[in-house]
Amino acid sequence: MTGTSRPTSDRTFLVIAHTGREEVTETLMTIARRCAAAGIVVRVVDHDTRRPAPPFVQKRPVDPEQLRGAGATVEVTHADATSAQGCELVLVLGGDGTFLRAAELAYPAGVPIMGINLGHIGFLAEAEAHGIDEVMDRLVGGEYRVVDRMVLDVTVTDPGGTESRGHTWALNEVVIQNTSHNGVLELVTEVDGRPVAAFGADGLLVASPTGSTAYAFSAGGPVMWPDLEAILVVPSNAHALFARPMVTSPRSRVAVEVHGDGRDAVALSDGRRIVDVPAGARVEVVRAQRSLKWIRINSEPFADRLVTKFSLPVTGWRGRS
């Protein structure tokens, strides 16, 4: 589903940045000046109160006084489920890790998000930092599209499946992995209420199309186009003859059971949100009812993004005559 966004009379952009680099500071100042000229309020996070998965290095917050020095009207907020409420969009400066951190603020508020790459690959970013002037032209003018990106809903239940141990969501993937990183996990995978395979493995990933190019790709999973709706299941270093990646329907219910006589595990969503999965427990993954709203400002084909981000060799291609 797509829609055309319109600027509002009282506009606020929430800006999340991976600070500490000169390039980030320069980009932030450009954003501040452009927002000031357009009468757009810049909202920034003063500190992050969340508890993501270790290891985690606390990023220095954006300096609001520095942005005010560029003429911007600045609001300061904490990082929580209300951070993005009332904002037109969330603008992220950094790599994919910063984008996933910012998605935790955008998703609960139903606010669209856009990434500007200041990292290495930056697969989740819509634009690069050197194009910030054009980006701001489009955002200030309301000349952007909002598309939906599929999100996964993750529930962990106790042995027997009668009591919930935790509930979370994932934009990229949820990984069920060994707590101790010693030995293998004994797992049973299930799709739509039927067992599919049992094997020992380092872990197992359940990914969205957006996450197919991240951890799931490194684990041997296929690349899925982001406008596809499907759920990807990828075992990690499985000890079995049949433990290949599977692509299921977006309406499927994928479950992973940890053997009751085996090791404890954890379910790690987007590398940030952890739920304990003791031996005998069960992880169920379905498509979430709500999608993440994602800002597009260009019409670059996904194939071109693959080639650029992964530096794929395409020498010899002549195309259609």
Features:
321 residues; alpha+beta; Rossmann fold; Tumour Suppressor Smad4; 6-stranded parallel sheet; 6-stranded antiparallel sheet; 6 helices; 21 strands; 36% strand; disordered N terminus
Q: Quick summary of this structure?
A:
With 321 residues, this protein is of the alpha+beta class. Helices cover 18% and strands 36% of the residues.
Layout of helices and strands:
Elements: E1 2-4, E2 12-17, H1 22-38, E3 41-48, H2 64-69, E4 74-79, E5 89-94, H3 96-109, E6 113-117, E7 127-128, H4 132-140, E8 145-149, E9 152-157, E10 164-170, E11 173-178, E12 185-191, E13 194-201, E14 203-207, H5 215-218, E15 231-236, E16 246-248, E17 254-258, E18 265-269, E19 273-277, E20 282-287, E21 292-296, H6 302-310
Parallel strand pairs: 2-3, 2-5, 3-4, 5-6, 6-7
Antiparallel strand pairs: 1-8, 8-21, 9-10, 9-20, 11-14, 11-18, 12-13, 12-17, 14-15, 15-16, 17-20, 18-19
Helix pairs in contact: 1-4
* Proportion of residues in helical segments: 10-25%
Instruction: Please state the structural category.
Output: alpha+beta
Q: How far is the N terminus from the C terminus?
A: 33 Å
CATH superfamily grouping of the largest domain: Probable inorganic polyphosphate/atp-NAD kinase, domain 1
The succession of helices and strands, N to C, reads EEHEHEEHEEHEEEEEEEHEEEEEEEH
Count of beta strands: 21
Radius of gyration: 21 Å
Number of domains: 2
* CATH class label of the largest domain: Alpha Beta
* DSSP helical segment count: 6
Shape: globular
Quickly give the CATH architecture of the largest domain. 3-Layer(aba) Sandwich
Provide the β-strand percentage band: 35-45%
> Largest sheet, if any?
6 strands, parallel
Uncertain parts: 1-8
Q: Strand order within the widest sheet?
A: 4-3-2-5-6-7
CATH topology of the largest domain: Rossmann fold
Q: What is the average of the pLDDT values?
A: 89
